[in-house]
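fwd from M.: "can u put these together and see what the complex looks like"

so here's what she sent:
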Amino acid sequence: MEETDKIRVPMREQTAEDRVKNFDSVPLGYYEEEAMAEAQRCIRCKDPACETKCPVNMKIRAMIEKIAEGRFKEAFLIAKEDNPIPAISGRVCPQEDQCEGVCTMGKKADAINIGKLGAFLGDWAMRNGVTEELHIEARDKKVAVIGSGPAGISCAVDLRKLGYQVTLFEALHVAGGVLQYGIPAFRLPKDIVDYELSYLQKIGVDVRLNHIVGQNVMFDELCREFDAIFIGTGAGAPRFLKIEGEELMGVYSANEFLIRVNLMKAYDFPEHDTPIVCGARVGVIGAGNVAMDAARCAVRLGAKEVYILYRRTKRESPAREEELQHALEEGVIFVELVNPTRLLGSEDGWVKGIELSRMKLGEPDSSGRPRPVKIEGSEFIVELDTVVNALGTVPNRLFLDRTPELETTSWGGIKVDENLMTNIEGVFAGGDSTSGGATVIQALGEGRTAAASIPDYLSGR
Amino acid sequence: MTHRITRKEDLNAMDYLIEVEAPMVAERFQPGNFAVLISVPQGERIPMSIQKVEDGKITMFIKRLGKTSIELDCFEVGDSLESVIGPFGNPPEVKRYGNVVFASDLVCGHAENYALCKALQKIEGNHVISIQTFPTKDDVYPTEELSEAVCDEYYLTTLDGSQGIKGHYNNLLKDLLEEGKVDIVFAGGDIPALRDLAKLTEPYDVPTIVTVRQIMIDATGMCGSCRVFVDGEMKLTCIDGPMFDARKLDFKDIINRLSMFKKREGEAMEYYKSKTGAK
């Protein structure tokens, strides 16, 4: 192997200094010749592990082969066969744990930059107006898909391609779920999300916004009206710390912080109406992707010091490598081995600090990661004026409370069998509503699995 | 879906009503539900009490207070809003309560007063008493928008005594409680007055249910912005409320949190004025 082939074609990105002043995309994308050069590094394994490891089993080898030859349209159509939103997944997948993590090249050199090549194709197709030419043979069975996040999108697209009449119900005023409200524009530009989602309508999915199943549409109505249902309602409700001081002003759930910034575009206040108050010293509790997103938003909103407060160490952080790296480059300070014990407030009701305990790592717990153990008497106080709680999310009880007939697990997720069917005949579920907090691509994968099971159910197999 | 304004009228110098096409909200409305409005594409999502529904239209009472309500006031009959979503919330059961009072002293409370009295009055065995408080006679709403027509016993009070009974609804309620003619109190409006109400009814052991206005975004339980503490337990106004047992609420926290974006609201107003020349 030539020495130069060992190294990835780097993707241009905004410098840390520039990007903290805006919400524009950090990576700037590959030029065509850069994408070709990166694709040409692929050694075309006989049994590509990247494809097996991909939750939607994209035909990565064939896709990269076409990119290497500069046949971008063909490459795009190959990507699109298994993945309805390549421009999105290419940006937000944890590739280092999936395709790129098992890339043969990665054993001796840099793994192929599969994620960025996927994003390149999605962007290329958008720029050049290239779409699939589908010939959909209509079937009369009707399927309702609840939730327009990644799981709902892939389920709706696959079923529609098979000819079913698909109606997609979304609670918010825009479609996309976590892609809209959760992931910031500097990681996932919203014009790309809008474009990828416009595909749903193009292929004839009936998208109904502002329809909140369990609130203004009842689940049993859907059961009567549709032949099958897929629930992809995600895990959209915040978990709180349950410590003293959570009522204080300046304390946000990561959901609220990100919904304000991403969905409602508070970063563009007052041009957009929804405000946000972000202080000079911000503490973000947790160290996953959501925590990194919140911390990086805080930097861009003008905070002077932004801390990630984590009870384990950087090494155990569940965040994507790239997000953690980007956050650190942008000046986010990672405080390891601390756990919040209470929030301190001022006379007028604003948060003014956080009390933390020092932790040490103990024996591995059920997740395989070392269990953080409190060091008694180690409490100390950090002054903060904004606290963002990014402890993870749980399925939204608005829907679940009003569908008591649906069986759930002890932590509130929806129970499903190996075909992703729930305890109710003809009702399927997938994505974060069944798995808790996972990734966009896993949700896409489960949407596809359900879309493969539903036709069997509908034809009585 | 278009949300065309079909009627818009002043209620007093500060408050106005707006009737808008919202068939889905209208069809599924229960008294005590609220709607979420988005006036323009860049607009915020604001929760709004509903006074009544009729033929696929809903009527809301709005106070000219912040940027959005001032902007909405510039809309005319025939114009369309970006979105009218809902209904939201987990309203109280409409059932037989006996002697039931609904008291209100502010725009959103007056809307709920009307909606709930109208529904409760239809239940046999209820004697519905409505009390509405306004600062002065100049602030009193047009008669047809008051709850007088939808209750069995009606009291209008003004703080300065210029019309009806002098004082706040809490003053009048004390007398009604003393007479022992109240089985349950519902109320909505100014939060400090609701806190006083909770204290007022306690010695009489009369159940007291109040509407909490809290800052919301999605109104579906996602953001947690509208969290309140009920007997120390966190509840969400959007999906658990907006009506709660007044004696279990932490009012100090509610009042504090309502002021979280005060400064920003002022900035939004200034920006809007400078952009449009609005006063």
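replying to her w this: The mean pLDDT of chain A is 94.
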